[in-house]
Design goal:
Strand content: 15-25%
Number of strands: 8
CATH topology: Rossmann fold
Distance between the termini: 42 Å
CATH architecture: 3-Layer(aba) Sandwich
Order of helices and strands: HEEEHHEHEHEHHHEHEH
CATH superfamily: Alpha/Beta hydrolase fold, catalytic domain
Largest sheet: 8 strands, mixed
Helix content: 40-55%
Radius of gyration: 18 Å
Number of domains: 1
CATH class: Alpha Beta
Strand order of the largest sheet: 1-2-4-3-5-6-7-8
Shape: globular
Length: about 290
């Protein structure tokens, strides 16, 4: 199996970022643990955090990310939930390097295997971007396993506008040809709401050291989620150029039942913001929804 990394040095660089975000969580007062579970798609590392007696929440991160990088961006989750956070296979974390088929159900069956490994029959789930796609695929293949779900700018409901996607790819190619700070920021401004220097450097190293995944979350077939009637919280970002809010809302209205609440993140692009003040109201909504 081909590695997702371009070189051994690149793999070490991304492993160092993993450790860095674990240290950042420690500095934020979050204690974490890890366990490995076996799946049909390879070994999967699951990070745990938060009070052991709190409501359990299984989280799924976005593309080119890891569990600690995602959680370090929103550490307030650990104040009210017991977090279980897998490193998605095929992404630059501690799980297997195998990349899954974006056009089939593999992400869903991988998630089923993770839940089996954790001995969880049903879960509360939070999925962001690619993570939202994982939750939707899980609900497609095993709807009874997801009892409540928060979907934040989820993949799987719509495709990006081709002009924005072409622009992102073009800017990424330009950066790879001649990496400069200005070119990097041009890439980031298409997806980031605000900037944090750790994540700017992490993303730059991801572009340098990780082979790009040529796939993209496919739109789930019409009616694929008709058997999933669990309560849902839908979160969309006002200035999202990857999964635009109006497109996500329109498809969700036709394909998702039992949407209990919808949150519009004003002024936000695709990536969750780093500004804690923007996140405080959302943390309250998540607490109300899952507790």
């Amino acid at each position: 199996m081909k590695s997702i990394y371009k070189s051994e040095a690149g793999e070490r660089a991304m492993a160092a970022w993993y450790e860095h975000f674990l240290e950042r969580l420690t500095e934020q007062g979050v204690e974490v643990g890890h366990q490995m579970v076996s799946t049909r798609f390879g070994e999967t590392n699951v990070m745990t955090a938060g009070p052991s007696n709190a409501t359990k929440l299984v989280c799924f991160h976005g593309v080119m990310s890891t569990a600690p990088a995602a959680l370090a961006q929103i550490p307030a989750l650990c104040e009210q939930f017991r977090i279980y956070f897998p490193d998605t296979v095929g992404q630059p974390g501690r799980s297997d390097h195998r990349r899954l088929n974006w056009r089939g159900e593999e992400h869903g069956w991988w998630a089923v295997d993770v839940l089996d490994g954790l001995e969880m029959e049903t879960i509360n789930a939070l999925g962001v971007s690619l993570g939202g796609y994982v939750v939707l695929r899980l609900a497609q293949v095993a709807p009874e396993r997801v009892s409540r779900a928060a979907l934040w700018a989820p993949g799987g409901l719509t495709t990006p506008p081709w002009t924005d996607m072409f622009g992102l790819i073009w800017d990424g190619l330009a950066y790879n040809l001649r990496p400069t700070r200005s070119r990097l920021e041009k890439v980031l401004e298409r997806t980031f709401t605000d900037l944090d220097e750790d994540y700017v450097s992490f993303f730059a190293d991801s572009l340098e050291h990780v082979h790009p995944d040529r796939g993209f979350p496919a739109v789930l077939p019409k009616g694929a989620l008709q058997n999933w009637d669990a309560p849902k919280l839908l979160i969309v970002n006002e200035h999202d150029r990857v999964f635009p809010a109006e497109r996500v809302l329109a498809r969700a209205e036709s394909e998702l039942s039992n949407i209990e609440d919808t949150v519009m993140m004003d002024g936000c692009a695709h990536m969750p913001p780093f500004d804690e003040q923007r996140l405080v109201p959302l943390m309250g909504r998540l607490g109300q929804f899952f507790n």
